Amino acid sequence: MVANIAVSEQIGELMIHCKYGCYYNETLKRFVADSTKCPSTFRMNQRRDHENDCDYMPIDCPNNAGCPPLLKKDLEDHLRSCNNVHCPNKKYSCDFIGTQDELEEHLKSCRFEGMKEFLRLTDEKVTDLQMHLNQKDQEIEFLRSMLGRLSERLETMEKSVDMKLELVERNHSKIMDEILDNRKDISALTEEMSHINMRINLGATAGAYDPISMFKCKGTFVGHLGPVWCLSAMGDYLFSGSTDKTIKVWDTSSSYKCVKTLEGHSGIVLALCNYGNKLFSGSQDCNIIVWNVETYENCQVIKAHDNPVCTLVAASNMLFSGSLKIIRVYDVHTYELKKELTGLNHWVRALAATNEYLFSGSYQTVKVWNINTLECVRDLETSGGSVYSIAITNHHILCGTYENCIHVWELNSFNQLETLMGHSGTVYALAVLHTASGTKVFSASYDRSLRVWSMDNMICTQTLVRHQGSVACLAVSRGRIFSGAVDSTVKVWQ
């Protein structure tokens, strides 16, 4: 559900009293201000900031639950005279309790004071070990769940094979009889098949089966602890961002293993793109982090937006980031904010760029921007719901929408050519692959499938179904397609 921002802002402007400055009047049957308590009034959207730090907030003495209730403003005076001050080494079994002055004398002779640095380091090591143990437990649970799924699938396949074997045995004699009866027709059928094969080889049939262009799943990357929302490929390495707030680096040349896990975001990683030797990652925490892909070091943190960073693309020495109703343009080398592109009416969920244009998708509109002047030169309207993905081929503009369809425009004239139907869920991602048999466009959808479209005749030539959850992102590298999904896996297609 999308929040009503206008109403939310109006509510946030209402003036209210601090809850620590009011009491319930039984006579009036409502809350009224108490002049002996907090006198502050403020806007409703400032309530949490004030009340979390209000001097009239009731608190307990941190030294002993037996002390009388206090107001926050009186805590400092109370602590100077409190008789229940514990030794800071209490967690190491020191049972001293006294006043602040007595504590200072005690610390001079406390047997734990001299060992506190050693004890602190020991605690840190124990905490690190516990954290690693918890992480291993999570990985074990994930592997167990995957093993359970595989076992269920294997059992289902065994039952299916048994049923089919029984059917084969039951019909074996009948089939043999039919074969004997049909021997006279073999020569005629063989001749007909030769004609069909000739037509297939010559490509006479539209949409003919071409085994060279059929894609198959070649492997699965497993390691993320949550859905995979974004992918970016660079040479032999693939980068994936996830709900677990990490970016994993996969070797796709030989080992097909995770070689590094990049940590730095405090929210879901929603967008990735690369430029030169740099990787840019955008997150729900509203920041963009710049990574050196040679050393995997965090080079820079850009405070990018006031809302989550939905999408990123880099071109012409510029980094474009999309968020709520805005696209910000940064210098890809200095990270300086160069311009803000406005006039957008919703979340910017998709960006794509060529040498001439930047394409942005927001609500039901694809905007075309001149990449040199950063001025909007064209609006392409859709009729299939909000735009979630954009891809550019040598001749076409494609966008996937919330209403399960893919719109196609001619790149030079911006005339709409076709609407591709087939998916039964939102089209979250599009990717272009140039093959010997022509340009192919891959689409990833909420319906857990990938579809392969031939741009020569705008026909779906293959449907790939291997993921156990919605397919959220795609990446292309060296003739291979990588797909990330809500099932926490990344699959390789070739």
Notes on the structure:
- The chain has six helices and 36 strands.
- Helix content is 23%, strand content 39%.
- Mean pLDDT is 88; it is low at 202-210.
- It has 494 residues and is of the alpha+beta class.
- It starts with a helix and ends with a strand.
- The protein is extended.
- The strands form eleven sheets. A four-stranded antiparallel beta sheet has the order 9-36-35-34, with no helix packed on it.
- It folds into two domains: 11-107, Herpes Virus-1 (2-Layer Sandwich); 217-493, Methylamine Dehydrogenase, Chain H (7 Propeller).
Give keywords.
Methylamine Dehydrogenase, Chain H, zinc ion binding, repeat, 4-stranded antiparallel beta sheet, 494 residues, 6 helices, Herpes Virus-1, alpha+beta, Znf_TRAF
What is the secondary structure topology, with strand pairs?
Layout: H1 5-12, E1 15-17, E2 22-25, E3 30-33, E4 41-43, H2 47-51, E5 58-59, E6 70-71, H3 75-81, E7 85-86, E8 97-98, H4 100-109, H5 116-181, H6 183-202, E9 217-222, E10 228-234, E11 237-242, E12 246-251, E13 258-263, E14 269-275, E15 278-283, E16 287-292, E17 297-303, E18 311-315, E19 318-323, E20 326-331, E21 337-341, E22 348-353, E23 357-362, E24 365-370, E25 376-381, E26 387-392, E27 396-401, E28 406-410, E29 416-420, E30 427-435, E31 438-445, E32 450-454, E33 459-464, E34 471-477, E35 480-485, E36 489-493
Antiparallel strand pairs: 1-4, 2-3, 5-6, 7-8, 9-36, 10-11, 11-12, 12-13, 14-15, 15-16, 16-17, 18-19, 19-20, 20-21, 22-23, 23-24, 24-25, 26-27, 27-28, 28-29, 30-31, 31-32, 32-33, 34-35, 35-36
GO molecular function, one term: zinc ion binding
Pfam families: WD40 (PF00400), zf-TRAF (PF02176)
Keywords: Coiled coil, Metal-binding, Repeat, WD repeat, Zinc, Zinc-finger
